[in-house]
Amino acid sequence: MLKLAFSYQEKLNHVWQSIAFKDKYQFYSGDIWWSYKVELDSSSWDNIQMVSVGNNDNILGYFGAHIDRQSNKVSSIGAINFGNVNVTFSKDFYQFLYELFTKHKFRKIEWYVIVGNPAEKLYDRIISKYGGRVVGIKKEATMMADGTLRDEKEYEIFKCDFESQMTKGVQQGMD
Predict the structure, then answer these.
(1) Which of 23, 126, 139, 140 is the most buried (most CB within 10 A)?
(2) What's the superkingdom here (predicted)?
């Protein structure tokens, strides 16, 4: 279930600190540094920050969106799954995107992934299913903690395309 991160600040930072330097999470920061806590905003003017919450109120993941108000778009997304591949986390990621378009009324969402990140497959499925696109690949754009250079894949999806694909999906389900 998707919930406001602000209400889970202490729990979120506890989980965040427990995974900070684990190799599995190297793609999130893509660097040798890692913040020891998530800086949570007390309003949604600059950022929207949510957590994926499972059974027993456990935090499964974190989602953040940086807002570009002048262009009425989300200029970047941060998403991190604190566990293994999880259906609830994937559904919550979709819900996060859905709410950015429907509740917050943004016209466009842009984000990138470091190529090789396991989340890349989820992002590819989402843009394929909901009318987004790969904008391009920036070669050797990020230096990882181990010193290797990785490419970044950039995505974008527009509200009109997202809604159009959702409507098609609903109509196909009725047939």
Answers:
(1) 126
(2) Bacteria
